[in-house]
Amino acid sequence: MVVLGIDPGITNLGLGVVEQVGQKARMLHGEVVRTLHTDPAPKRVGRLYQAVYEAAVRFKPVAIAVEEQFFYRQNELAYKVGWAMGAVLVVADQQGIPLYGYGPPKVKQALVGYGHADKTQVAYMVRAILNLPTTPKPTHLADALAIALTHCFFSRMTGLAPLS
């Protein structure tokens, strides 16, 4: 099973592709797609769309997993992350790939076994599970890989429904 994990952001979008065969998982691809805050919104969203589209076409994932983010009193940030999510949603629709969302506590629970683990513990587990020589950096990449691994973990459960 190949899963495309996304840590959505308009300035830094983490993109990680994980393949799981049996109990083993490996990283097929990882990158952080960066846009400039000085560029107009259409150019920024277009850049994110292109990167997600290229990963979807190249790796043919069976699912796209995104980090569901919750913003409290950060309307502008939520609005701009929405731009990034829009690019991901279009790719998922065009390619016919189901989209799943996981909040930070679910990711931490799946990888560390504790829903209140810190980011360094999650990044360490990403490194260990994927048998990487170093911890993925920056954090956007580690988060994208963690989200893909979370979907691999939860996909074994029945009743998993895509985002609607």
Automatic annotation (TrEMBL):
Q: Where in the cell is it found?
A: Cytoplasm
Q: Which UniProt keywords apply?
A: Cytoplasm, DNA damage, DNA recombination, DNA repair, DNA-binding, Endonuclease, Hydrolase, Magnesium, Metal-binding, Nuclease
GO terms of biological process kind: DNA recombination; DNA repair
- Which GO molecular function annotations are given, in alphabetical order? crossover junction DNA endonuclease activity; DNA binding; magnesium ion binding
Q: GO CC annotations? A: cytoplasm; Holliday junction resolvase complex
Pfam family, any one? RuvC
In this chain, Mg(2+) 2 is annotated as bound at: E67
The free-text note explaining how the cofactor binds reads: Binds 2 Mg(2+) ion per subunit.
So which domain of life are we looking at?
A: Bacteria
Q: Which residues bind Mg(2+) 1?
A: D7, H140
User: Which cofactors are required for activity?
Assistant: Mg(2+)
* Enzyme Commission number(s): 3.1.21.10
Give the positions the UniProt entry annotates as the active site: D7, E67, H140
Which reaction equation describes what this protein catalyses?
A: Endonucleolytic cleavage at a junction such as a reciprocal single-stranded crossover between two homologous DNA duplexes (Holliday junction)
What family is this? Belongs to the RuvC family.
Assembly behavior? Homodimer which binds Holliday junction (HJ) DNA. The HJ becomes 2-fold symmetrical on binding to RuvC with unstacked arms; it has a different conformation from HJ DNA in complex with RuvA. In the full resolvosome a probable DNA-RuvA(4)-RuvB(12)-RuvC(2) complex forms which resolves the HJ.
| Protein's job | The RuvA-RuvB-RuvC complex processes Holliday junction (HJ) DNA during genetic recombination and DNA repair. Endonuclease that resolves HJ intermediates. Cleaves cruciform DNA by making single-stranded nicks across the HJ at symmetrical positions within the homologous arms, yielding a 5'-phosphate and a 3'-hydroxyl group; requires a central core of homology in the junction. The consensus cleavage sequence is 5'-(A/T)TT(C/G)-3'. Cleavage occurs on the 3'-side of the TT dinucleotide at the point of strand exchange.
Q: What protein name applies here?
A: Crossover junction endodeoxyribonuclease RuvC
Q: Gene encoding this polypeptide? A: ruvC
